Amino acid sequence: MKSIAPLIIILLISCKKNSEVIDTPTIVDTHSNQEMLEDIDYLDVICFGSCSHQDENQPLWDDIVSDNPDLWIWLGDNIYADTENMTAMRRMYDKQEDIAAYKQMKTTVPIIGVWDDHDYGVNDGDKSYAQKAESRDLMFEFLDVPESDPAWSREGAYQSYVIGEDSRTVKIILLDTRYFRDRVERINREYIPDENGDILGEAQWNWLQEELQTEAPLIIIGNGTQVIPEEHKYEKWANLPTARKRFLELLSTSPSKIVLLSGDRHFGEISKMELDNGKIIQEVTSSGMTHSYEELTDEPNQYRVGQFASQLNYGMMKIDWSSENEPKLDLYLKGDNDQQYEKVTF
Q: Is residue 325 very low, low, confident or very high in pLDDT (cuts 50, 70, 90)?
């Protein structure tokens, strides 16, 4: 729930009409992204998505705005850059910034996010990408991450946010699954799982362990790569099974309700998994804001709940704080013209 008291500057513009000077006030809202984040009392509605090409039509922003979200979360491929030319990458971010509907949303909805591969700079990129430090800085500028944020002072793009207080607190953790990722061999378009490979890097692992030590009743963890699904042949945490096992074991130690958010796949789905200690986690994969695999008819996923969405889609989470024990969540996959493809209550 937003509680916004924006700073308003009134400019007096003199206009001549019938030889009279009329002072016409022009209102300019200078409320920054960080100020809007700080003005959130607690979160009721969060929208999120991924895979948005700056050169393609972007029809979903008006639907997202109509949902009146308290927060928007980018989950990667926020632009399609695929370049080591940072000047070219900056132009691509500028083009996304200039899209009218996105620009309008930014005036009322605070934005956070993290990258995947195409905005990182290279398709299926890993730690070997030469421009990763420079690319990270461009992404932070695009997201308006304030220079005071500790994320600027370390390698990688991982971040965390605490929104709300007491029983209505949400901790949002955004993981960087590119900057430190080991290379995974690919043969005939299929990744070969690497038991020895890592995805987060030791500094990020240590940071994550500390971030999970929270009393927040709800933790949201976003990244560009699917965590729960393990049967498909494309990029997924299961390609680095030792790292995935370590991650799931870390999640099992938290008493908080945990929801994972991911992108990348150009379709949407919701997955549910029971961890070894009986803890239930869910993952919403929302992918394909400008292009999707509309021809996809099926893909195996033993953890999928309901149907997948092969159309353009974004995700939404509604949080009901009325329960004394834990928040109740409605998880959605939505599309253009207020279409609803899936809804799961958690």
A: confident
Q: Is pLDDT at 25 greater than 80 in this prediction? A: no
Beta bridge mates, 330: 318, 345
Neighbours of 277 (CB within 10 A): 9
Three-state SS at 76: coil
- 36 vs 2, 39, 71, CA distance in Å? 8, 5, 9
Instruction: Indicate left, alpha or beta for 252 from its phi (over 0: left) and psi (-120 to 50: alpha).
Output: alpha
- Please tell me what DSSP assigns to residue 2: B
Enter the DSSP assignment of 215: -
Tokens coding 28: 């300019």
Superfamily of domain 33-345: Alkaline phosphatase D (PhoD) (3.60.21.70)
Domain positions in the chain: 33-345
pLDDT, position 3: 53
Place of tokens 């899209």: 99
Collapsed DSSP state (helix, strand, coil) of residue 258 = strand
Are the CB atoms for 158 and 210 separated by under 8 Å? no
Residue 264 to residue 215: CA distance in whole angstroms: 30
Q: What are phi and psi of 272, to 5 degrees?
A: -130, 135
Q: Where do we find the tokens 């940072």? A: 86
Helices of type H across 15-60: 33-38
Q: What is the pTM of this model?
A: 0.92
